[in-house]
Amino acid sequence: MRYELMLPHQIRKAIAENWPVALPLGVLEYHGEHMAVGMDTLAVVKTLELFEKERDVVILPPFYYGAASYAVAPPEGSGSVQVGGTALAPFGEELFYSLLRIGFRNIHAIIHHQTENFAAGMPTDLAFKTAGRQAIFRFLEKERGEGWWGSQAMAAYYAEHAEGSNFFNWVQVHPLMSADMKYPFDHAGIGETSLMLALCPEAVDAAHFGDNKSWYTASAPEASAELGQKGVAMIMDHLRAILRI
Ligand SMILES: [Zn+2]
Fold it and tell me: How far is the CA of 216 from the centre of ligand 1 (A)?
């Protein structure tokens, strides 16, 4: 369900049943002359919309204003929007803290931008990872008081942790495409262009392939909706694995 359309009784049901709550996290960034600047975020939004057809999930309004950086192109006339990680982390903390206050304990931000470096982290995902950790500590200290972890009530912490229960799983950040996915990972090349042809064809205009001059768009004209559908199938399997009740 789309969070903005949910009624309070539906929100309470989602909390009681521990539905996953997904935040599409992304950027607005130059993706060549042939593709829309929202590509990285649209890929998350559109695959979550497919996921919503088969599973119970709360989809939060997408956050498009991540740290695109100007690594690909300067902003003038290109459309890239850059909000740095140091500004994002406080925003993310407030957002996650508020979601914890509402009662959600199964929160997942999903990002596609720059995720070839997800293990080490890049500014947007690192900011939201930090935000999640900060929000959880703050929430637990508010709910249970300082010293909550050291209290006798937590004596089974390590045993429960080993069994998989962990407060710090309440807020997680995931790449849209896992590192082992056999799909061409690129920026505005055949991989991303094919994903958009499959998910959101209005974000691609083949009439502008010829206007591209950059190395990273050289393979874009080879894109196809068929290849994109293969990527979508892999992403759907990944979402089924990470967004569980
Ligand atoms: Zn991209």
Answer: 11
Residue showing tokens 């979508």 = 232
Closest CA to 27 of 96, 128, 107: 128
> How far is ligand 1, taken at its centre, from the CA of residue 192, in Å?
6
What is the side-by-side strand order in the sheet with 58-59? 58-59, 21-25, 107-111, 171-175
In this predicted model, what pLDDT tens digit does every residue of 138-182 receive, in sequence order?
Answer: 999 999 999 999 999 899 989 888 877 789 999 999 999 998 999
Distances (CA, A) of 25 to 2, 108, 140, 172, 244: 15, 10, 25, 12, 19
- CA 170 – ligand 1 centroid, Å: 27
Strands 107-111, 171-175: parallel, antiparallel or unpaired by DSSP? parallel
How far apart are the CA of 38 and the centre of ligand 1, in A? 8
Distance CA 150, CA 168 (A): 16
C-alpha to C-alpha distance for 31 and 38, rounded to whole angstroms? 8
Which pLDDT score, from 0 to 100, does residue 161 have? Answer: 84
| Cβ neighbours around 160 below 10 Å, total | 13
Report field, pTM of the whole predicted structure over 0.85:
yes
* pLDDT tens digits for range 197-228: 999 999 999 999 999 999 999 999 999 999 99
> Which pLDDT score, from 0 to 100, does residue 55 have?
97
